[in-house]
Design a protein that fits this description.
This protein has 377 residues and is of the alpha/beta class. The chain has 12 helices and 14 strands. Bound molecules: S-adenosyl-L-homocysteine (SAH) and iron/sulfur cluster.
Length: 377
């Protein structure tokens, strides 16, 4: 993938948000500083939301001066901030280089889920996905990924107190395929989990993938988070139409990788399978029955997602009766399934369904970048 990536425009200074704990300690070592200074800086950034090293009052003036000269605290610029009638917030953030990304916060009674983007555009070209239609521009940096959490935390704190503001869960279900931006993803996940970062539980941080198998295996040994797999079809013929990477990594190999994922670790894992309901395409009883066969006995939960239409998509959202019928077949066969509510419809903010209209500017640059995948994996 990296071969088609436009490098993130850089300033001469290191962005402090690009380092996870190990990276920050290593960086501080190069400055001739003790590792605990790195931990202090992480706490300033993520516990206190510091945006300037001068706020870091337990560091000496000399160290603050050194940090001011050699580093910056860079987060994307807030371009729009929409609050939907149901409490969902959607932001567009403008990055250096001019591209936009979207981030969504979905408050519920006992939790608040932030839906985070990992790339500008996506090369995997799933036929029902607005992000995929844009083509691929570049990977986000660690700072641009964790910066979405940093910004959302700040922006939510400014909203009316009547609303639930706390980010308890992060799902990597915004724009892009997170596993094709592996190193930046992992560093950002480390910061979400780290006590000096956001201290989120590993069960509450979810990476969603369309099935980049080598990276799925690699993730398992690298950082302990939850996994969601975008299945969307129960057989190869249909899945290849909807999720083209299926041609490279077909369903039987995907399921083997899923078995490897659940089969290790110090806890009983399960996988969330996402299934976008497309009217007359993958929502018929025979698809449900095929799905039952595929998932029988597997520690799976299926999330039936309402399709979020966009211009020229060529698909329609499945009617409620089709979704109910599909759900019943799964349920009757003891496959745990939930129907995702549509949230933030009025601002097109439903998580994982980001329309990406913000990227109009980048689209022009994207025209000649042909989707390619898996080359470096
Ligand atoms: N690339 C990753 C994560 C981002 S997409 C992946 O594909 O899993 C997050 C989820 O939103 C995926 O399950 C994706 O299939 C789904 N999605 C994409 N476009 C959608 C649309 N128009 N309506 C509903 N869900 C969509
Ligand atoms: Fe990329 Fe996910 Fe959209 Fe597919 S569904 S094009 S993998 S962002």
């Amino acid at each position: 993938m990296e071969s088609v990536v436009q490098p993130a425009p850089r300033s001469d200074k290191a962005n402090l948000l690009d380092f996870d704990r190990a990276g920050m300690r290593a960086f501080f070592e190069t400055l001739g500083e003790k590792p605990f200074r790195a931990d202090q800086v992480l706490k300033w950034l993520y516990h206190h939301g510091a945006s300037d090293v001068d706020q870091m009052t337990n560091l000496s003036k000399a160290l603050r001066d050194k940090l001011s000269t050699e580093t910056e605290i860079y987060v994307p610029a807030v371009e729009t901030d929409h609050l939907s009638a149901d409490g969902t917030s959607k932001w567009t953030f403008r990055l250096r280089g001019g591209n936009g990304i979207e981030t969504v916060f979905i408050p519920e009674k006992n939790r608040g889920t932030l839906c985070v983007s990992s790339q500008i555009g996506c090369a995997l070209d799933c036929s029902f996905c607005a992000t995929g239609r844009q083509g691929f521009n570049r990977n986000l940096t660690t700072g641009e990924i964790i910066g979405q959490v940093w910004l959302a935390t700040k922006l939510l704190a400014e909203k009316p107190a009547t609303q639930n503001h706390r980010i308890t869960n992060v799902v990597m279900m915004g724009m892009g395929e997170p596993l094709l931006n592996f190193n930046h993803l992992v560093r950002a996940l480390n910061l979400m989990l780290d006590d000096n970062g956001y201290g989120l539980s590993k069960r509450r941080v979810t990476v969603s993938t369309s099935g980049v198998l080598p990276a799925m295996d690699k993730l398992k040994g690298t950082v302990d988070v939850s996994l969601a797999v975008s299945l969307h079809a129960p057989n190869d013929k249909l899945r290849t139409q909807l999720v083209p990477i299926n041609e490279k990594y077909p369903i039987n190999e995907l399921m083997d990788a899923c078995r490897r994922w659940v089969g290790t670790g110090d806890r009983k894992r399960h996988i969330l399978f996402e299934y976008v309901m497309l009217d007359g395409v993958n929502d018929q009883p025979e698809h449900a029955r095929e799905l039952v066969k595929l998932l029988k006995g597997f520690p799976a939960k299926v999330n039936l997602i309402p399709f979020n239409p966009f211009p020229m998509s060529g698909y329609k959202r499945s009617p409620d009766q089709s979704v109910a019928r599909f759900w019943k077949i799964l349920n009757d066969n003891r496959i745990v399934a939930t129907r995702r509510k549509t949230r933030g419809d009025d601002i097109e903010a439903a998580c994982g369904q980001l329309a990406g209209q913000v990227n109009d500017r980048s689209k022009r640059e994207l025209k000649f970048i042909k989707p390619r995948f898996g080359e470096n994996l």
